[in-house]
Amino acid sequence: MKFDLSATGLRFSRHVPKEQSPFERLFEIFKELITHTSGDFDEAIDWLRELDKEYTLTDENYTIDDFVRDLLERSYIQPKGGGKDGDGSGMALTPKTEKLLREHALKQVFGKLKKAGSGDHKTKSAGQGNEATGEFKAYQFGDALEKISITESLKNAQIRNLDGDFDLRQEDLVVEDSTYNTQMSTVLMIDISHSMILYGEDRITPAKKVAMALAEFITTRYPKDTLDVLVFGNDAWPIAIKDIPYLQVGPYHTNTVAGLSLAMDLLRRRKNSNKQIFMITDGKPSCLKEPGGGYYKNSVGLDDYIVDKCYNMARQALKLHIPITTFMIAQDPYLMRFVRTFTEANKGKAFFTGLKGLGEMIFEDYQQNRKKRLG
């Protein structure tokens, strides 16, 4: 179907999606599987073979073995530990693939956001900055001279001099208002306690996708910002961005205090004045590390000893001007009460969510928090 409107110079035609090659079709599935298997290539290929048997993804012209060979030839995988080239055993992801997984996650998560702008977030105050708003304010001492709007300033002078000789005064001068993009340091905390895979619900894979997407979002759109990622179970430790796809849940309790303590330590090392913590968790705090090195654990209900330590950490972060945004992937009433009290102690934010909208809420909150106006 075509419409040729020669009079207007416009031409319309039906959009025909680009046909994917056999490799491209399998690669889309592979990117999902490799995230679910935490980077285990052999397991992902085994799943792909099972899917092929059930849904006939390939034919005699292009097989799963052909796909594995193409992955190797295109440098998406590389042999490890003595694996033989092309046989699918002992393969590891390359940095190229790790980057693609982050881009894939970004497209999945960030692509769902409403197009309300390109990351612009208004606040009530205004002032000197680096993004024009289209509005003007009176010139003040200290405003950059290049920001003075000559046209608007002359217009003000002309209005003032309607009945007399023309002259230009400081009171006529206006500068174009703008917003200032602040540099933000963010720590993303991911709960890897056993509850993240309990009851047949995979909560860790969506959490990994959000972490990968956030990492790609910050490093590409806000390269001056910093992002640290840490995981917490019985203990807490930082992980490199490239290692996010390989995250796995362990037989851990939830030491929220250890995670918050490490997050604040990481932020103390950052020079940016704007700092924040995002915490993704689905379980109650159930573990503390004692001064002697042992662990105090209680999986039954909310333990006052553990919970009070969490509240103290929230208040400590407040004193350091570090807001904590908690994304609780659970709907238990007693957990929601805990999170509300925790959030009140920090003056932060809390979202009670399923997994579906988790990424969208994190991105919207990230963008809202990272820009302010200066007056």
Describe the protein's architecture and organization.
The protein is of the alpha/beta class. The chain has three domains: 22-96; 131-180, no CATH class; 184-372, von Willebrand factor, type A domain (Rossmann fold). Helices cover 38% and strands 20% of the residues. It has ten helices and 15 strands. The chain has helices at residues 22-36, 41-55, 64-73, 95-110, 150-160, 204-221, 256-268, 304-319, 333-346, 358-370; strands at residues 2-5, 10-13, 77-79, 91-93, 131-138, 174-181, 184-191, 226-232, 236-239, 274-281, 287-289, 295-297, 324-328, 349-352, 371-372. The strands form five sheets. Strands 9-8-7-10-13-14 form a six-stranded mixed β-sheet, with helices on both faces. Helix 4 packs across helix 6, helix 6 packs parallel to helix 10 and helix 8 packs parallel to helix 9 (333-346). The radius of gyration is 27 Å and the shape is flat.
Low-confidence stretches: 1-10, 113-131
Number of strands: 15
Instruction: List the quaternary state of the chains.
Output: single chain
Number of DSSP helical runs: 10
* The CATH architecture of the largest domain: 3-Layer(aba) Sandwich
CATH superfamily of the largest domain: von Willebrand factor, type A domain
Overall helicity: 25-40%
Mean pLDDT: 83
Q: Classify the beta-strand content into a percent band.
A: 15-25%
Strand order of the largest sheet: 9-8-7-10-13-14
What is the makeup of the main sheet? 6 strands, mixed
Q: How big is the Rg?
A: 27 Å
How many domains comprise the coordinates? 3
Which H/E pattern describes the elements? EEHHHEEHEHEEHEEHEEEHEHEHE
Q: What's the CATH topology name of the largest domain?
A: Rossmann fold
> What is the CATH C-level name of the largest domain?
Alpha Beta
Assign an overall shape: flat
